[in-house]
Amino acid sequence: MNFSKSEQVLLDELQQWENKLTKNEGYELPAAWHNWAEKQMASIPPELKNSLTLKLDTAVFHLNAFLQSSSLQLSAREQILKSAAAIDSQAREITDLRNLSIDQLNYIADIQLSKQRLYSLVQGGLTGAGGLLFLGADLPAAMILQLRTVQTAALCYGYELNTPYETMTILRVYHAALLPGNLKSARWKELTEELYERKEEPFFYDGPEEIADEASLRVYIGQIAKLFVLSALRKKVLQGIPVFGLIAGAGINYKQTREVAQFAQKYYQLRTLSEKKG
């Protein structure tokens, strides 16, 4: 089946974006944070490192399951269905969105994912300007926002969240999106090669159950380094307001969530085109 003009344009954009990934043009931790994270990783015994990775994997899995049935995600689901129904009155279920054109799906996704970026901006600002309570809540709050971002992207392109395959796909996309450019490129290749190889959409997941690895753990250790930096910046105030911490926190969290949203949207765009065109 031939591609329409807009679909071909999108494919070209996806190819350009993929080329940037292979050149390591993705989100990177600042050099000081990266070096600190590397030193901390090197100091962790292998047994403890494996234990922490397993606990991270379990925590993200359960958090993802919880968010799927949360009121916030159910509300986002309703908004997505309302947007789809305004375009096509026959769109009553999430899977009905697959009958829409890729341009229509992109329109819905752009609106919903922009909200996630805004939430991240606010949350990061509160972390940078708030007290110890906000600093302590930053890591779980960021995980929640970014997992919701991937879930929202899946819903916007017509994929239900509650099958074993879709659940594990969300986790794989989430972990891949957080990695630096060189590692992210390898994960992108793994995810997309599966799209070309399979003949039909699976219900069950038959890949490795442990998604998080040492690279994922390194990312979170880097996030802890960020909290130390924000804590120091919070002490520098202008007219009683920790402006530097506020700007830094908002900017860092916004950029990371934007990277997660972009990666997730690119994946579901390519998956949609792959399935529409066989």
Structural domain count: 1
The run of helices and strands is HHHHHHHHHH
First CA to last CA: what distance? 8 Å
> Helical segment tally?
10
Largest sheet: none
Binned, the helix content reads over 70%
Structural class: mainly alpha
Report the average pLDDT across residues: 87
Report the uncertain regions: none
Pfam families: EcsC
InterPro entries: EcsC (IPR024787)
Organism: Metabacillus lacus
Protein name: EcsC family protein
Describe, in plain words, how this protein is organized in 3D.
With 278 residues, the protein is mainly alpha-helical. It has one domain (48-276). The protein is 76% helix and 0% strand. It has 10 helices and no strands. The chain is globular, with a radius of gyration of 19 Å. The N and C termini lie close together (8 Å). This is EcsC family protein.
List keywords for this structure.
globular, EcsC family protein, EcsC
Write the layout of secondary structure elements.
Elements: H1 5-22, H2 31-43, H3 46-68, H4 71-87, H5 102-129, H6 132-156, H7 164-178, H8 181-197, H9 214-234, H10 243-276
Write a short abstract of this structure:
The protein has helices spanning 5-22, 31-43, 46-68, 71-87, 102-129, 132-156, 164-178, 181-197, 214-234, 243-276. The protein is mainly α and 278 residues long. Helix 5 runs antiparallel to helix 6 (132-156).
